[in-house]
Amino acid sequence: MNGTVTAVSRGTGHGFSKPNRPSVRLLAGLGVEGDAHLGVTVQHRSRVAQDPMQPNLRQVHLIHAELHDELRLAGHPVAAGELGENITTRGLDLLGLPRGARLHLGEEAVVEVTGLRNPCLQIEAFQGGLLKQVVGRDEAGNVVRRAGIMGVVLAGGEVRPGDTVRVELPDGPPLPLERV
C-alpha cells in the first residue's frame, strides 16, 4: 500500500490554513519543525484550555488530495494546506487506515496514525457549507469525519512533494480510527 506526498505545509501561527513549503522537517516526538502545533503536549488552543498537559496526539495532520477533488466538485475550491494539513497525499485511503498504522514518508520520517481530525467551526468560517461536506452521518446515524487524520512523529526527517508514502500496518486486529 503506497501513495505519494503531493504537498507539505506548515504555519507558525494558530491560523486555519498553512502555507505550502518546498519541504518540512518532522521532529521525533514533537511534530513539524516551525509549526504552531509542534510539541510533546497538546498545542491546539481549545485542548490547551481543557488540559495543557495532555499528550499531543495531533503533531501532524494529513489529508488525502482526493478529498480536495471531491470538495471542488461540490463547489468548494480547496487547495493543499488550506484545511490546515501539514501533509497532503494521493493514492492512499487515509481514513481507512487503522489506529497505529505507520506511514513511512520519504527516506527517513515515520508518522504513527493516532486518529481522526475533528473539524471545528473554523472550517465553516473558512468557507460556508464546508463543515457539512467533511462531517456527516452514516445510515446508522454515526458521525463520519472526513477531514483527515492525525499522527505523532516516531522518526524525524525531511518530507517533500513527490516523496513516497509507504504504509506499515500494525500487528493484530485493526483498531478503528476515533476522534483525537
SSE topology:
Blueprint lengths: L1 E8 L10 E2 L2 E4 L3 E2 L12 H6 L9 E5 H9 L13 E4 L11 E4 L3 E8 L5 H5 L3 H5 E3 L5 E3 L3 E7 L1 E3 L4 E5 L12
Parallel strand pairs: 5-6
Antiparallel strand pairs: 1-2, 1-6, 1-13, 3-4, 3-12, 5-11, 7-8, 7-13, 8-11, 9-10
Task: Describe the protein.
Helix content is 14%, strand content 32%. It is α+β, with helices and mostly antiparallel strands and 180 residues long. It has a single domain, classed as PK beta-barrel domain-like (M1 Pyruvate Kinase, Domain 3). It has a seven-stranded mixed beta barrel. It has a three-stranded antiparallel sheet with strand order 4-3-12, with no helix packed on it. Strands 9-10 form a two-stranded antiparallel ribbon. The longest helix has 9 residues, at 65-73. The mean pLDDT is 95.
Helix content: 10-25%
Tell me the CATH superfamily: PK beta-barrel domain-like
Note the gap between the termini.
Answer: 24 Å
* Number of DSSP-assigned strands: 13
Give the low-confidence spans. none
The number of domains = 1
CATH class: Mainly Beta
Strand order of the largest sheet: 1-6-5-11-8-7-13
Mean pLDDT: 95
Biggest sheet overview: 7 strands, mixed, barrel
**Shape designation:** globular
